[in-house]
């Protein structure tokens, strides 16, 4: 018989006597017993604090309990309880996924926010980062040393999800994505054992975690990230009217193929936003450079072609990495979604057609929905970045290091009501299909790589990576989780 404490807890979490609820109730009780003071139940302040997410699609869920481990050992204890009770669960680092993935109804959430240590190695070449950190905390820790890492571009995003999914950075032209710059992982496996993964130890697990996501393999409790010297970052943003859209797109397209391969410290991003009041698609271009010019108003040579395009407005600055991380904040509160694809860079006409088609799509589908915001996010992936995908044994993104330059095209939508969820997925899926068809017709489509961190759950993230990567990832998952505990119980995110 359970002790009185357990009976009290059981009564608090067992609402409906289904098998799933019985399993979850038993898990929450067991967790409270082995991790006292670290398990939180509904209608308490700590529970409400943990149940906070970037997207309302996650925020609205109500797990039976949260467990907040403080160490890898705590995670091990939690996984053993969950394995034994067969309870569904998920894992939260920063909670920055738009669809339900790091939160769950009828289940347990392992919130890693308390595993937030930061330790710089004696030679200052590696920083050990707990998965509960956000990127601002990492940058602030390294700032006094004049160092940085390849990490996120928005400060409130969690370290774990971004790094495991790939991790596009301002510094990716020179160093690759975040996953390419992890020296070692500490991982808690499904059976509760704690292992490390690096080039020499568990190299298959090491490769799988480099862009292959986490839910298939284990819970990462430490990332050892390679550091490099870094001072301020220069940036500039400019807004261009619809009349200048085609010129802006052409220059940006050329930059993705030529300029970025000549200057691997540059990183540009373009947004297209349909604004009927202004007559069509407004173009906003952001550019960053890791070496600021001596004169703030001097533009790095790689970006000079953009200067000739008339702008509605523009501004620039030179900021520290922590300050740059907090320039743009995408506030929580709305329902959010993103749908991703990629085309081959270098075909300006195809990119112009894709953005023009987006405007037609927006006018047809959103004219009567003023509360909905839908934009295209366009990110070049130059060959200098792709070449880094092969270092240290390669990553699991499925993009060959010899692939020509690509452009990521992401549809990002925010809306207010759950009743619109299916509609938004339908129209976004339609737009992605149209985008890919335009690229195919223009001979500007390769494998259509889908970036996990920018994908909707309805997209076939792994399917676009090819059979060899899928086979590798499945074999690694089976090796380190032979009983399929994570496959069956870890809910919400992409599974190979």
UniProtKB/TrEMBL annotation:
Q: Which InterPro entries does the UniProt entry name for this protein? A: FAD-bd_PCMH, FAD-bd_PCMH-like_sf, FAD-bd_PCMH_sub2, FAD-linked_Oxidoreductase, Oxid_FAD_bind_N
The family annotation for this protein states: Belongs to the oxygen-dependent FAD-linked oxidoreductase family.
Pinpoint the FAD-binding PCMH-type domain residues: 59-230
Q: Which residues form a coiled coil?
A: none
Is Nucleus included in the keywords of this UniProt record?
no
Q: Which PANTHER family match?
A: BINDING OXIDOREDUCTASE, PUTATIVE (AFU_ORTHOLOGUE AFUA_1G17690)-RELATED (PTHR42973), FAD-BINDING PCMH-TYPE DOMAIN-CONTAINING PROTEIN (PTHR42973:SF54)
Protein's UniProt keywords contain Isomerase: no
Name of this protein: Related to 6-hydroxy-d-nicotine oxidase
Q: What Pfam families does the record point to?
A: FAD_binding_4
What GO terms are given for molecular function? FAD binding; oxidoreductase activity
Span of the signal peptide: 1-20
Query: Gene3D superfamilies attached here?
Result: 3.30.465.10
* Keywords from the named record: FAD, Flavoprotein, Oxidoreductase, Signal
């Amino acid at each position: 018989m359970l002790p009185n404490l357990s009976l009290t807890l059981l009564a608090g979490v067992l609402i409906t006597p289904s098998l799933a609820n019985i399993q979850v109730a038993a898990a929450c009780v067991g967790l409270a017993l082995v991790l006292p003071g670290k398990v939180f139940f509904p209608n308490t302040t700590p529970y409400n604090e943990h149940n906070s997410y970037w997207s309302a699609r996650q925020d609205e869920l109500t797990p039976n309990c949260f467990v907040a481990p403080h160490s890898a050992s705590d995670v091990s204890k939690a996984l053993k309880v969950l394995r034994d009770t067969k309870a569904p669960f998920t894992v939260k680092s920063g909670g920055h996924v738009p669809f339900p993935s790091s939160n769950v109804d009828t289940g347990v959430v392992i919130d890693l926010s308390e595993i937030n240590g930061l330790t710089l190695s004696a030679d200052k070449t590696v920083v050990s980062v707990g998965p509960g950190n956000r990127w601002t905390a990492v940058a602030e820790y390294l700032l006094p040393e004049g160092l940085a890492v390849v990490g996120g571009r928005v400060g409130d995003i969690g370290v774990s999800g971004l790094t495991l999914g790939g991790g596009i950075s301002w510094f990716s032209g020179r160093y690759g994505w975040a996953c390419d710059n992890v020296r070692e992982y500490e991982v808690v496996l499904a059976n509760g054992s704690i292992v490390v993964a690096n080039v020499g130890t568990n190299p298959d697990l090491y490769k799988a975690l480099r862009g292959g996501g986490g839910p298939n393999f284990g819970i990462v409790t430490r990332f050892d990230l390679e550091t490099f010297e870094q001072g301020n970052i220069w940036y500039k943003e400019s807004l261009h009217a619809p009349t200048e859209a085609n010129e802006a797109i052409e220059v940006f397209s050329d930059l993705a193929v030529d300029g970025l391969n000549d200057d691997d410290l540059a990183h540009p991003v373009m947004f297209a936003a349909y604004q009927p009041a202004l007559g069509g698609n407004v173009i906003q271009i952001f550019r960053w450079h890791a070496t600021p010019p001596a004169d703030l108003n001097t533009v790095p040579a790689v970006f000079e072609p953009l200067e000739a395009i008339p702008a509605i407005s523009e501004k620039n600055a030179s900021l520290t990495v922590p300050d740059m991380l907090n320039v743009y904040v995408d506030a929580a509160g709305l329902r959010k979604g993103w749908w991703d694809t990629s085309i081959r860079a270098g075909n300006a006409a195809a990119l112009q057609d894709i953005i023009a088609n987006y405007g037609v799509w927006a006018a047809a589908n959103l004219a009567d929905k003023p509360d909905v915001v839908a934009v295209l996010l366009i990110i070049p992936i130059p060959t200098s970045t792709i070449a880094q995908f092969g270092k240290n044994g390669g990553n699991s993104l499925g993009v060959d290091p010899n692939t020509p330059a690509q452009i990521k095209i992401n549809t990002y939508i925010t809306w207010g009501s759950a009743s619109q969820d299916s509609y938004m997925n339908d129209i976004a899926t339609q737009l992605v299909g149209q985008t890919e068809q335009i690229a195919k017709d223009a001979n500007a489509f390769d494998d259509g790589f889908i970036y996990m961190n920018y994908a909707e759950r309805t997209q076939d993230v792994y399917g676009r990576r090819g059979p060899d990567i899928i086979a590798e990832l499945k074999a690694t998952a089976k090796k380190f989780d032979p009983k399929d505990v994570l496959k069956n119980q870890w809910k919400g995110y992409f599974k190979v």
